[in-house]
C-alpha cells in the first residue's frame, strides 16, 4: 500500500496544501482556538508556537502500541508546544515550555528519511497540529529523497475540521486522544471546556478519512484510526461515557487503547482532583465499561499498583 502523501506529492497537491496551511499562520486558525495571531510577525497564540518548525527530538521509539512500534520501532518526531494546556501533561517540558530546536522543512525531511533507513515502520508526529504547514512541506521534500513509510498523526484530539481537511489523503494512521466526556472535566483538567464536542467531531472526521485499523502480514499498522483514552482519578475522564460514545457513535470496530499510566505530572498537584495517582479500582472500573462495549480490537494496560509511591 503506497502512503497517501507520496501520491499527493507526485501530483503537486501536497505542496499546494503546505502553502495553504503555512499562509494560515498569518492569522492563525489551525486549531479550534482560532487565535488569529500572525505567527510570522512573532505573535504567539495559546500554543505559544512560532511560525518556524520546532522539534524536541527525532528517534526510534519502542513504547507505542504494538501495531505502531512493531519490531523496528516508530520514527517519532516530538513537536514543541501544544494547542492544549493540560495540568497533568507528562511531556510538559516540550508541550508547555516549548523545549526544542528550530529546523527547516528540508532538515526535517532528511531526518525522516534517516529514521526510515534505520528501520522505522512509520513517521510518528507527536502534538503536530500547530505545525501543519511546515510538516506538509517536509513530507513533500522527503518524497524525492525516498520516504515511503506511513505517517502517524499522534495528537490530543483537539483538532479543527478545516485543518483535518488538509490532512485528508496525507495521514495514513490517526492516533488521537479522547480525553474527557464533559465540559466541566475538560475545564478542570485543561481549561478547554469545548474539548468534548470538538474531539467528537474530529474523531468522526478521522474515521471518515482512514476507517478501521489495517495491518500488514507482520501486524504493523498501515492505515486506520487508533484512539487513546487515559483513565483519570475521580473519573475525570468520564471513561464509561467516552467508551460508549466511541462504540455507539463511531464504530465497534475502532481500535481503542485504555491506559492506566496517569500520575500527577506538571502542575497537577496544585489541583485537588488531579493530585494523586490513579487507583487500581478506578482503572478496573474503566475496563468493565470497555468490556460492556465489546470493541473488536484494542489494547489495555496493567492496573496501577496501589502500593507504589
What does this entry look like structurally?
The model has no long low-confidence stretch (mean pLDDT 96). The protein contains 11 helices and 10 strands. Strands 1, 2, 3, 4, 5, 6, 7, 8, 9 and 10 form a 10-stranded mixed sheet that branches. It has one domain (4-300): Aldolase class I (TIM Barrel, Alpha-Beta Barrel), CATH 3.20.20.70. With 309 residues, the chain is an alpha/beta fold.
Supply database-style keywords.
single chain, 309 residues, TIM Barrel, ten-stranded mixed beta sheet
List the helices and strands and how they pair.
Layout: H1 4-11, H2 13-23, E1 54-61, H3 66-69, E2 74-79, H4 92-95, E3 101-102, H5 105-117, E4 123-126, H6 132-142, E5 151-155, H7 161-167, E6 173-176, H8 183-190, H9 195-210, E7 214-215, E8 221-230, H10 239-250, E9 255-259, H11 280-293, E10 298-300
Parallel strand pairs: 2-4, 4-5, 5-6, 6-8, 8-9, 9-10
Antiparallel strand pairs: 1-2, 1-3, 7-8
Amino acid at each position: 500500500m503506497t502512503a497517501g502523501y507520496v501520491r499527493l506529492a507526485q501530483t503537486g497537491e501536497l505542496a499546494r496544501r503546505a502553502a495553504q496551511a503555512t499562509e494560515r499562520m498569518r492569522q492563525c486558525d489551525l486549531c479550534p482556538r482560532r487565535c488569529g495571531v500572525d505567527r510570522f510577525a512573532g505573535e504567539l497564540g495559546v500554543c505559544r508556537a512560532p511560525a518556524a518548525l520546532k522539534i524536541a527530538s527525532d528517534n526510534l521509539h519502542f513504547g507505542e502500541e504494538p501495531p505502531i512500534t512493531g519490531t523496528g520501532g516508530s520514527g517519532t518526531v516530538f513537536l514543541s508546544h501544544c494547542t492544549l494546556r493540560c495540568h497533568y501533561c507528562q511531556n510538559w517540558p516540550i508541550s508547555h515550555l516549548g523545549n526544542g530546536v528550530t529546523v527547516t522543512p528540508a532538515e526535517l525531511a532528511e531526518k525522516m528519511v534517516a529514521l526510515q533507513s534505520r528501520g522505522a515502520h512509520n513517521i510518528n508526529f507527536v502534538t503536530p497540529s500547530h505545525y501543519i504547514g511546515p510538516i506538509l512541506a517536509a513530507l513533500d521534500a522527503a518524497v524525492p529523497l525516498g520516504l515511503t513509510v506511513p505517517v502517524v498523526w499522534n495528537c490530543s484530539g483537539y483538532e479543527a475540521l478545516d485543518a483535518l481537511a488538509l490532512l485528508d489523503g496525507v495521514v495514513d494512521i490517526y492516533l488521537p486522544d479522547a480525553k474527557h466526556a464533559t465540559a466541566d472535566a475538560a475545564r478542570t483538567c485543561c481549561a478547554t471546556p469545548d474539548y468534548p464536542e470538538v474531539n467528537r467531531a474530529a474523531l468522526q472526521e478521522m474515521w471518515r478519512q482512514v476507517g478501521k485499523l489495517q495491518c500488514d502480514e507482520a501486524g504493523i499498522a498501515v492505515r486506520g484510526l487508533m484512539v487513546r483514552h487515559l483513565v483519570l482519578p475521580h473519573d475525570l475522564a468520564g471513561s464509561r461515557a467516552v467508551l460508549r460514545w466511541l462504540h455507539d457513535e463511531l464504530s465497534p470496530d475502532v481500535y481503542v487503547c485504555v491506559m492506566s499510566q496517569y500520575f500527577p505530572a506538571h502542575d497537577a498537584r496544585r489541583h485537588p482532583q488531579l493530585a494523586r495517582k490513579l487507583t487500581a479500582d478506578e482503572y478496573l472500573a474503566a475496563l468493565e465499561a470497555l468490556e460492556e462495549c465489546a470493541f473488536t480490537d484494542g489494547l489495555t494496560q496493567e492496573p496501577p499498583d496501589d502500593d507504589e509511591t
